[in-house]
Amino acid sequence: MPLRFNHMELTVPIGMIDKEKENLIAFYGDIFGCTSIEVPMVDLDVPNKFLISTDTEFSQFFFLAEDPKPLTLQSYDHIGFLVDTWNEVDETLEKVKEWQKKDPRVELMHVGDDFEAGPVVTHFYYFRYLLPIWIDVQFLQWKEGMKPAKQWSYG
């Protein structure tokens, strides 16, 4: 039974979605091509719900739900975004840095900390913006003949 992630729910402070919706749409849309929608069809006892999706079909998304006791970031908990090329890591990093110049709430770490682990070099950085979780943007460069036979592909 093959599995893949569908969504991750993140609770945010009450009022955050109305206050930051335009920033969320602009940042994640500009850098990663994400799409967003409000979610009135979900009947939960929360003031606001909002989806940020990595695709137009909403098959992979963050489900933001306002909550009186929102998630707070106390560690380096993160989720990974896997991109198709080494250059996409660099290109998105430059866009994140440009946003950081406009909005100091954009946080970055592990810039230039690429590492090799056995058959793969991981080219990556972490960022955080408005969501209570770090996002690890990475490309996996496999050594010759070491690329796994099975890999997920979008299409």
Structure explained in plain terms:
By secondary structure, the chain is of the alpha+beta class. It has two domains: 7-71, Signal recognition particle alu RNA binding heterodimer, srp9/1, CATH 3.30.720; 76-150, 2,3-Dihydroxybiphenyl 1,2-Dioxygenase, domain 1. It has two helices and nine strands. The protein has helices at 16-32, 86-102; strands at residues 7-12, 35-38, 49-53, 61-66, 78-82, 107-109, 115-117, 120-128, 134-142. The strands form two sheets. Strands 5, 6, 7, 8 and 9 form a five-stranded mixed β-sheet that branches. The chain has a four-stranded mixed β-sheet with strand order 1-4-3-2, with helices on one face. Helix 1 (16-32) runs antiparallel to helix 2. The longest helix has 17 residues, at 16-32. It starts with 6 loop residues before the first strand and ends in a 13-residue tail after the last strand. The mean pLDDT is 91.
